[in-house]
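Figure 2 data, in text form.
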Amino acid sequence: MGSIQILKDGDAASRDGWRGPETVLACKVLGLDVRFIAPAGRIAEALQAVYGAMRRSDASECGASQNDGVAPELVVQIRPIAPASPRVGVSVGEQPPFEVERLGDLLHQLDNFLTITLERRLPQLYFVHAAALVDRGSTTLLVGASGAGKSTLAYALASAGLSYLSDELAPIVPESGLVLPYPRAICLKRDPPAPLAVPSSALRTEWTLHLRATDLGAALEPEGAPLARIAFVHYSPDWQRPELRRLSPGEASLRLYESALNPLAHPSLGLDDTLGLVQRAECFELRTAAILETVACLREGAQDRR
């Protein structure tokens, strides 16, 4: 797929220069008031698609010059870097600004910078590179390396009736095991396998596909839910059927620690919190295969092993 121009003719900001106005998306993200300020047009539409599920319930879309009465704790500012340039500059709180040209790169780097900022602002939380869904009132984490299929499986589980908490970032209160919601859009690198369908509202960029959290066919969990299961996801094209294997606390702790994003922010280098979370949960290795069979294996297999 070719490059998708971020600033196109008709947008508030374009290659012809800055023409105003800006659009504000006011969100509540893990208890923080976050304000996204961007040129009206494609960028603002993309931010709404990705982060719109976290929009403050009392906020209305407004111009950047308008005040909604709430002072933001974090500001994300996106603006063209020059009148004749297709590139935009992005600043996220106190992080150094960066520049991008492609929409997919903008969303990817913005997500990374936002994650780092949240880790710094909320060091009491234990952040894991994982998707999180709620089944029968308790949270299942999907943990794995990039490309393991976590996001595709998260979409399949949401389509199967599980409530949606997050994709790629799972914030956990270590003292209670409560997994908090971070319902940004599910991000896929390619179309999901049949019979999963791509919603008509999905946002496509040069190399990513974003499925809005509000259009997954799943409920959202605004208060979060306690951790009950951790599935460490692995994929190989050679596997013909899914398999679920229980892990010992030691092996599960090692794998969870490897996927923790801020363990050093916690006492004892995060080791005590890691072991505490593993002791709260049933831990499995999940080898994936056909998507519907994998969903059934995870839901039914985890239930059978209780």
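Caption note: Residues 103-121 form the longest helix (19 residues).
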